[in-house]
Amino acid sequence: PRLLSQFFFADERVTRVVAEINGLDADLDPQQYLVLLNQLHLSQAHLLAVLERIMEECIPTQRHSRDYLVKFPEELLVDNLGNHMLFAAECLLAGTFLEMEESDGAQLRPQARNLLCSLELVRTVLREQSLSQPNSYPEPVRTVLIQFDRLFAEFELSYVSSLVAVKSPDEIYRQQEIIVLFCETVERALHLGYLTQEMIDGYEPLLMFTIPRLAIISGLLIYPEGPLSLERSPEEMSRVFSPFYNLLKKIR
Fold this sequence. Notes:
The protein is an all-alpha fold. The chain has helices at residues 3-22, 30-58, 81-93, 102-132, 139-163, 169-192, 197-201, 207-222, 245-251.
């Protein structure tokens, strides 16, 4: 049950798979190469998951802020994002620029190198700690974990920002206004009897259509100066609704 022991065996698996890949001729056995790549992906994901739990246990108040994640498109916020970042760093260090311009990749390469070197240091330090005192986290261990956590967060933000348009503070605020509009719409609908608390508690499927429709009507007629205000230009509205500017005018 000890996290450092779990890390030891997870690290062993990654090391073993890497050794098998290095000893294989991919041209002679491409099928086995793909199998090993998949095993490497899974074993690295498990290693990062254990490392995340160790950091939560060891440096819970010294973690680097992840507030920037709110800027990312929702489709990127998946469970394996961290593993994808690690794979991206390895590709950049090898000179492979996936999904980006070569100039952007060249700028990110120093960050990728620092991240991977930090990960190797973390693996070495935690492996030694697991073999000596698997129940404690002395200061040298905490120091390398804090550094790795910071470098990982900085690379994640830089890499994603180079691939997609991250949300600006203004766009985040506009989406928060829409959340407030939906909440106020539900509260008003309950007060007027359009909805019942039982429907909400029972996750009535009809609500998935009803609440957004009511919120649009509320935003256009009841709160005309709110996030759906048509007195603004489409560029000043949230990207959630700006493509439907003319349709909103028709609805109003």
